[in-house]
Amino acid sequence: MKKTLKRGFASDNNAGIHPEVLKALQTANQGHCIAYGDDIFTERAIKKIKEYFNEDVDVYLTFNGTGSNVLSLKMLTDSFNSIICAETSHINVDECGAPEKFTGSKLLSVPTEDGKLTVDCIKYHMHGFDFEHHSQPQVISITQATEMGTVYTVKEIEKIASYAHKHKLYVHMDGARLSNAAVSIDKSFWEITGQAGIDVLSFGLTKNGAMNAEAIIFFNKEISRKFKFYRKQGMQLASKMRFMAVQFEALLSNELWKRNAEHANKMAKILADKVADIPQINITQKVEANGIFAIIPAVIIPKLQDQFFFYMWDQKKSEVRWMTSFDTQLSDIDDFIVLLKKLLK
Amino acid sequence: MKKTLKRGFASDNNAGIHPEVLKALQTANQGHCIAYGDDIFTERAIKKIKEYFNEDVDVYLTFNGTGSNVLSLKMLTDSFNSIICAETSHINVDECGAPEKFTGSKLLSVPTEDGKLTVDCIKYHMHGFDFEHHSQPQVISITQATEMGTVYTVKEIEKIASYAHKHKLYVHMDGARLSNAAVSIDKSFWEITGQAGIDVLSFGLTKNGAMNAEAIIFFNKEISRKFKFYRKQGMQLASKMRFMAVQFEALLSNELWKRNAEHANKMAKILADKVADIPQINITQKVEANGIFAIIPAVIIPKLQDQFFFYMWDQKKSEVRWMTSFDTQLSDIDDFIVLLKKLLK
Amino acid sequence: MKKTLKRGFASDNNAGIHPEVLKALQTANQGHCIAYGDDIFTERAIKKIKEYFNEDVDVYLTFNGTGSNVLSLKMLTDSFNSIICAETSHINVDECGAPEKFTGSKLLSVPTEDGKLTVDCIKYHMHGFDFEHHSQPQVISITQATEMGTVYTVKEIEKIASYAHKHKLYVHMDGARLSNAAVSIDKSFWEITGQAGIDVLSFGLTKNGAMNAEAIIFFNKEISRKFKFYRKQGMQLASKMRFMAVQFEALLSNELWKRNAEHANKMAKILADKVADIPQINITQKVEANGIFAIIPAVIIPKLQDQFFFYMWDQKKSEVRWMTSFDTQLSDIDDFIVLLKKLLK
Amino acid sequence: MKKTLKRGFASDNNAGIHPEVLKALQTANQGHCIAYGDDIFTERAIKKIKEYFNEDVDVYLTFNGTGSNVLSLKMLTDSFNSIICAETSHINVDECGAPEKFTGSKLLSVPTEDGKLTVDCIKYHMHGFDFEHHSQPQVISITQATEMGTVYTVKEIEKIASYAHKHKLYVHMDGARLSNAAVSIDKSFWEITGQAGIDVLSFGLTKNGAMNAEAIIFFNKEISRKFKFYRKQGMQLASKMRFMAVQFEALLSNELWKRNAEHANKMAKILADKVADIPQINITQKVEANGIFAIIPAVIIPKLQDQFFFYMWDQKKSEVRWMTSFDTQLSDIDDFIVLLKKLLK
């Protein structure tokens, strides 16, 4: 049943891959290449990525977002450190403790209204420095766009980064949906990451139309000095890496990433707008990227899910999450709204 | 230079992917699927895999061989355990300590002539049981085909497994080249794994023509009870898993895996035969799968590598390794032999 | 300066050791004993401990409270699990991340008024079961007496334990000040631990007048099955264990532990009573064991600390902590009150 | 039975503690001290230790030898590193995998004749540098005196250290029996450690007559920069540290350590000399410290052990180990020889 190819709003990783990405895989399938990344495709992908960020960054491909996040954090911490993050952050609630297991560090979460950290809420955990009984705060990790569908402004990021660096902490950004954030506030990748003070970025394009295109970008090369060993030991080194590399190249060429992100965000806005007219539904977060959070009558949820995949976000509040993706169709939205209204009658 | 698309005998993972695998990726690219493996493609792949092994096994896809090996060993050990393996085994020398880092266990290696463990050499480490100061031997890990290009017979596996089980140890098999082994001794996957007493198998088809098709097969479901959590925490859970799944389906359909393995093995035999005629070269291992180990005059190695990728195996002995793959051409071999003979003059 | 032998109220581990404990060390210093606990002194200590709990428990000595807590939690968790605890708990804020490092698990903390967990606050974290992306709640850890100087009643413990077991979770108790709790509510060790539903106890007598007397008591022997290996691997196995063992024997004989705890608690009450009369000081927690928390004028703190050691608890609130111990003298309290009043003038 | 206070030659940690050490504990039992090492006793102990080594070292007390070894290695390694050691070394065979668990690193052992590493045998593992698939050799760990009762000369240590440093590796020394080594070759602690090129030393006096006196000495302060956090997280930070500290002071005053070590070594020589006259017994290692290894007729072992504790070393060879200690009496030896001869008749 649930294993049918039913369209929906469950997650942007329920979508397939963009045809140009598929085509790129074909292109990469020629001749022999040194495995593990020492090939021209990977070289080209890294060059392309640097164009979007900065020539002076270090780039490494990984298998998935969890891998990017965990290995990023590993490079920033000793096991006696702690990592400050939003309570709703992916690293805190959706990675089955992978950060703790691999880094040995402690996660210190703070509740937020909208998934966004602020200096004020970070301060709550900024104590115990140099006291050996206390896990030493070392990293602030933020997600852009957040897990709540909101987007940090450049200024907000800069404030956090400046506060962090002043206190000798690092800033990590989980950029699983960086593309959606960038188009949302019309800024380049560079402007909302390295330039704004981010030290290490988990850069993901999988949710943007790739099959598996994930990378870590180090804006400070001192941090990445030993990274290649940790990537291997962290089980994140692909043998036939060229097939991951060409996905980056495809998405970062001809602004495919941008078209995909703009489309997904636009679909979210449209869906949100249509839903906003329905009195029984209450949208709970600003719709700034490709996610919509809404409180809807509990009774209609099962029937709605029966036709369109999506997830319950907060059972108690009857809050659900709808995600749009690069391949969301207007007709998907229309059909969904029709059913929604029908069920609400 | 080294990043050109030069063909060679460096490794079977320097090859690209089989066209039927590429086509399968296309097939999978339709509609929306629940991510993380809860989709029909993964269901079908697992069904197909079970046909080759046994209905009663547990199958989980992973990203790569390191992931399969490390997570397999994790399921078999407490951190105070030890794992007995050949000194040349991939888990011992080619995974940058990933098994130690993730499991906390100790690897106990034994030197072998041909990469194959025997009960006799295992016995060396079978002591200290119940003595809390001593890492407790718990797993025997063997590789099929071995890293030395040799293949265990069913009987050899059974002997090890029977010895292991008698002493309450588990047997893990690293099957990164299981296909090459199976065709080499004309046995089914099942006959050389579960039926022969293996408890957990790292089953890899990446080197057999896939892009990334790796799985863990548990022949004892008690072992895999908690596995899904460890796969996630071990950063080995793919979001768009369907694209990994269809590669299994493609390779396990129409005996594609078999054709690929037979071809690779046959190419190795041909290369070995041609080389055997050259008096200055000494083949050091039986050529039972798709690898050839040979001592060749040190002076010609750089020039030979200049035209054909391959790796030095043992600098001191001037021993090199040549791997063939599903896409090795007769002309590759002929050109290589011509150059080899020319350089030896 | 701070390294003088100044008396004070900093912590019960700033006190020395009871003379009878010192004498016991002498008694143990005869002849040769098998090291690592296989000796008559350890046997006798374990027998004595069992008398206070139950014949059917498993007892292991460790070096310190951190070791007891971490190894207890290790026995109760897989690395993908989470541990629910009070935000102020020692395992959460005073062990430099030792639980996360050794177990790989996640700590889920909840704010409390008085350091005591309740079923209601535990429930906040009771979700995500069987969902592989989410760390699986597995242990509830409570501290008796709490870090805030309060004490759980038997009923309160039973409620938590019953809720935990109903949901297949374990309950761990950090009993670094179990003696103070026991005398506070006039219950036996057994009544407030195993009988009330605790699964594993960190049992500490160091703060009760020992030099280093710490143990783990398993009320469920299935949990401790592999413990001896983890104790060794966790660096908590003492060679000349007899000298730790005899401290238990000394304190658990002639009710020395009880006299010590009663004295410490009584001193706390006296100090609290005297302080209660001072209008500028506000006691913030119930004084149920041997700790007093009070808000005092910030300006007098440095001068007070100059004569008597004690710690700031919450800088922002100007809240301090005073601990009494088995060797606190009435004169210590009198002198302290005199100075306090003088400074407040 | 085995739990009687029977004297013997099982291990130097089966002995009790020297009366002067016991007396020192009493001295430390006065007034209140800041816990966790911030006290005058610890300050004095560290000062005293530095006198034996060098003013410019960093000293930290730990609970036991395993703790010292594991935390030393942690400070010298990333988890992707490897540690080269003798096959018989304590860190390799007697710590239940504690180094692997806590550091994540790989141990690379080499067989030796006499427990002593040489540059030649180290070289076997010196390869794979900068190759990310291979655990990177980073530390050479030697034991002084060795687990085989032999002692490195200053020159031998210097050779290893000089080779290590030339290749950018560190040298760790397990000095659980450093005193026995120092008196054996009539060198100071400093001459056989820091001055000879050791980077980090596990310095143990427990086997020399202490109850528990273990420390780590860093000869390179860059290495210990973050140590205090790792000691706490590694569960090796004692609360009432003063009682550990004074044991160092006692043993390092009036050359008590030296008298104890000289006595133990002398007793070993006497035992060895007496045994050497017995034709059925074959001493297998040089007796340079306080251990004797001998092959004796298997048939008499149980009866001998019945009267005197000692351990079988190698069952297959019928090789046993006899250790002497600071409290071994001539009469112990005489009685043992009498019984030995009687049984051999």
Q: What does this 3D model show about the protein?
A:
By secondary structure, chain A is of the alpha/beta class. Chain A has two domains: 234 residues, 3-Layer(aba) Sandwich (Aspartate Aminotransferase, domain 2), CATH 3.40.640.10; 89 residues, Aspartate Aminotransferase, domain 1. Chain A has 13 helices and eleven strands. In chain A, the strands form two sheets. The first copy, chain A, has a seven-stranded mixed beta sheet with strand order 1-7-6-5-4-2-3, sandwiched between helices. A four-stranded antiparallel beta sheet of chain A has the order 8-9-11-10, covered by helices on one side. Chains in contact: A-B, A-C, A-D, B-C, B-D, C-D. At the A-C interface, loops of A face loops of C.
Low-confidence stretches of chain A: none
Q: How many strands, which pairing sense, and closed or not: the largest β-sheet of chain A?
A: 7 strands, mixed
Strand residues, percent of chain A: 15-25%
Strand order of the largest sheet of chain A: 1-7-6-5-4-2-3
Q: What is the name of the CATH topology of the largest domain in chain A?
A: Aspartate Aminotransferase, domain 2
Please write out the topology.
The structure is a homotetramer.
Chain A: H1 19-28, H2 40-52, E1 58-62, H3 65-76, E2 81-86, H4 90-93, H5 98-103, E3 106-110, H6 119-123, E4 136-143, H7 154-166, E5 170-175, H8 178-184, E6 200-204, E7 214-218, H9 227-233, H10 242-252, H11 256-276, E8 282-283, E9 291-295, H12 301-307, E10 311-314, E11 319-323, H13 330-344
Parallel strand pairs in A: 2-3, 2-4, 4-5, 5-6
Antiparallel strand pairs in A: 1-7, 6-7, 8-9, 9-11, 10-11
Helix pairs in contact in A: 1-10, 2-10, 8-11, 11-13
